[in-house]
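Dear support,

I submitted the protein below through the web form. The confirmation email said the job was done, but the results page showed an empty box. After a refresh the structure appeared. I'm attaching both so you can tell me whether what I see now is the final result or a partial one.
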Amino acid sequence: MIGTLLTFQLMVYQQSHQKDKIVILPPRKLSSTSNTIYFIHVGKAGGTSIDSLMRTIARNTKRRYVGGKHFDWSYIQEKEHKEAMAMEKMRIIKEAGEETNNDGNMTNHHDDNSSNNKNNNNTNDFTTHADVITFLRNPFARALSQFHFSKTLSWAKRSNDTWLHQTFDEYVTKVKPGDFLEPLENQHVGFMAGIYEPGGWIAAAGDEESLEQKRYLEQNKTAACLAAARNLDKTIWFGLMEEVDKSMRLLQVSMDLETIPRLPTRNSHKHPDEMSEETKLKLEKYIQQDLWLYEYAKRLFHARWDYFVATNSTSENEDEIRYIHPELPTLPDFTDEPSDGTDTV
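What the results page shows now:
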């Protein structure tokens, strides 16, 4: 049931991004609300530096900030849902007290909007009351960085596995099922679509409905890509490691900061080897989802840049400033998609 509903939702989303059919409201700024800011920290994508920067910015702007660990989209949705339920419970208790008059009789103090409070707390689209940000990196560079970073971890050193003694080229060429596969994971899509299951190093929702949806997205790579792109659309700000200067300028505009923030260098490691073109071709088959999402992220990033910075700096008339949302890239042909009809998203 969840798979069918999600397939329909993602089909509508995909169709809404076709040329001449894109009607999407302009993105808003982080400064437009006092919502909690959640940072989705993708592994080896500059997240430690962003986390350090955002802690300082949130403190100076008196914003609540949730970061400091790895969590996916589903974690935020679950957390916001729990907080909304707690607030709803407090509201009911408060209204019950206010409805008792001095004679001990109950009076009706509900306003016209009280019947809609539950709907206002619906967290299927929690982004109306939570501001999500993230930072992405070229998937080829992320995979190489993940490989070398993982070699420095104590559990890896204790394992003394074969991959610890390989170059990245050797690793990609000789990897097999059962080996350490984290550098080959589609982490951008995994984090943004909310695919991870709880219990690992990535915090994630674990209720029955969430788990059913995660398993569906794991099986249907097309749906996972579209879900990740849809959620990326809902971020209030995101940056690209390959566009640090523009990313910081967009963050300044989004937060209405007086100066352009400077991204600190945290958790940075130099790689002893690079990636050959032959290895890139081999790696590409593993990270097709992330490559597709990153291509869309670049389009979306430049659309926001044009709207918030480039157009604003050249136009004196606000009515002339238009937001042009990008089209989705052509989806890869995932040959291992399920053949039960769910791959027709």
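Response: this is the final, complete result; the empty box was a page-load delay. The chain is about 50% helix and 5% strand.
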